[in-house]
Amino acid sequence: MMAVAKFALLLVTLLMLTHDCQALEPSSGRLEEDEAPVVATSYELCIYTIVTETGKKTGAGTDSAISLRIMDKEGKEVYFPALDNGNNDFEKGSIDTFSLQGTCLTRFCKLILYTDYTGFFPSWFVETVSISLVIRGNESQKTWQLHQWLPKEDDATSPRFLIKDDC
Q1: Domain assignment of residue 161, yes or no
Q2: Based on the structure, what is the number of domains in the chain?
Q3: What are the residues whose beta carbons fall under 8 Å from the beta carbon of 56, sequence distance 6 or more?
Q4: What is the DSSP code string of 21-49?
Q5: 116: closest CA among 61, 46, 62, 71?
Q6: Region of residue 28 (phi > 0: left; psi between -120 and 50: alpha; otherwise: beta)
Q7: Is 17 helix (H, G, I), strand (E, B) or coil?
Q8: Over the stretch 86-136, which tens digit does the pLDDT of each residue have?
Q9: Which CATH number does the domain housing residue 48 bear?
Q10: Residue 63 structural domain
Q11: N or C: which end of the chain has fewer CB within 10 A?
């Protein structure tokens, strides 16, 4: 059994050595747009902090289940089904914070929000979505200014998703 553990450790070490990892300056602590990213290995998991801001318009809050997908320029993605922090999420004028685990993406640039369009108030007016994560001591963050309905209740033809692509 000890030989298997040593072999696994050796394999992980070799994978990390052969992976093209770049590091930020230790003093920066924050990943800026023009800096080289800290490269996550394909098996690393990160804790994402997702912050949503619901608008203050009449009917802005929703009882629907909201899901979120983020992607990077290479098409790698992380999907978070049914955002739920145990509170009454997505109420008019509220800011909700979710801490979720997923595969590490350090240069995410595309956001897709989904609604299941259920509940008494199925539409949602979302102002902003911010996503951040820390990987090996360095923070990566992106905020999308949305200011729109997902979907508007009186428009049956509205899609039940919203895409913001900054890639």
Answers
A1: yes
A2: 1
A3: 92, 93
A4: -----TTT-B--TTSPPPPPPTT-EEEEE
A5: 62
A6: alpha
A7: helix
A8: 889 999 999 999 999 999 987 899 999 999 888 888 889 999 999 999 888
A9: 2.60.60.20
A10: 44-165
A11: N
